[in-house]
Design goal:
With 267 residues, the chain is mostly beta strands. Helices cover 4% and strands 49% of the residues. A hairpin with a 6-residue loop joins β8 (155-165) and β9.
């Protein structure tokens, strides 16, 4: 069903699929699509869907705050004094029917936009089913704060902070910043991200990404990216996970590095 998505599909139902209404009241829709929490990362990430994608750090270590809710209901307000409010609820964030909504979830955000500045604050809570012994399982939750600022036609800056609780591995903070510079026909970018320690000692990691791309018209883009991750002894954060087709298998303590050259064509 379109509102539950199919993450193993090669067709459109693995991506955002929904029906809705839009008007002066705002936007209301139902289906399977990105949460407001996920969009904080996507709007501050200079390497989205490439090696060096911020998800290598912020969605590593068992954290999952970059989701599309199944059975989602979403409302987005119109712009009110440069502010936009989002509320996204899932009655059951799993496939199949249920008689109770113990597996429900909520994601919310407030966005400020003015004069080239975007600031987003988001909160998400994913309630969990009882375990096999019938015991309650703590809800997984997170907070994100992201900002992106266009200084002028050449420079852009971005910063990101995340706090997550009760995911696999325990509570963890992550943060990062990036910079973009337009040099003639080329766009240069760099970003640095760090994941703090969770419940296990030596479970932190850092990632550095550098890249350049050039657009040939509105549809065709060529890019070159270099990324490397430095893992502590008990960490196995990736460098090519999250959006990039080829994913490496990382042993604890290993420090992956990748170079990627590619092209993107938008139909």
């Amino acid at each position: 069903m379109f509102e539950e998505g199919d993450t193993n599909s090669d067709f459109f139902d693995a991506r955002d699929t929904f029906v809705g209404l839009q008007g002066r009241f705002g936007t209301a829709r139902v289906g399977f699509f990105d949460t407001p929490m996920k969009k904080v990362r996507s709007r501050t990430d200079f390497f989205g869907d490439k090696i060096g994608d911020a998800r290598n750090i912020v969605a590593g270590g068992g954290v999952n705050l970059d989701k599309r809710f199944r059975n989602g209901i979403h409302y987005q307000s119109p712009v009110l004094n440069n502010l936009i409010f989002d509320l996204h609820y899932s009655t059951n964030d799993a496939t199949g029917s249920t008689t109770e909504n113990e597996n429900d979830a909520v994601s919310s955000a407030v966005t400020y936009q003015a004069d080239g500045l975007t600031v987003i604050l988001a909160y998400e809570r994913q309630n969990q089913l009882d375990n096999a012994q019938g015991q309650a399982v703590a809800a997984q939750s997170g907070i994100r704060l992201g900002t992106r600022y266009k200084l002028n036609e050449q420079w852009q800056l971005a910063a990101f902070y995340q706090q997550s609780s009760n995911f696999n591995g325990g509570d963890r903070d992550a943060w990062g910043f990036g910079v973009g510079y337009k040099l003639g026909e080329y766009n240069l970018a760099a970003q640095y991200y760090q994941a703090g320690k969770a419940d296990n000692a030596q479970s932190d990691a850092t990632m550095l990404a550098l890249g350049v791309d050039r657009a040939l018209g509105k549809s065709l883009n060529f890019y070159l990216a270099l990324a490397l991750t430095d893992n502590a002894d008990n960490a196995n954060f990736n460098v090519s996970a999250g959006g990039h087709g080829k994913r490496l298998t990382i042993s604890p303590g290993a420090d992956p590095m990748a170079i990627s050259f590619g092209t993107i064509y938008k139909f």
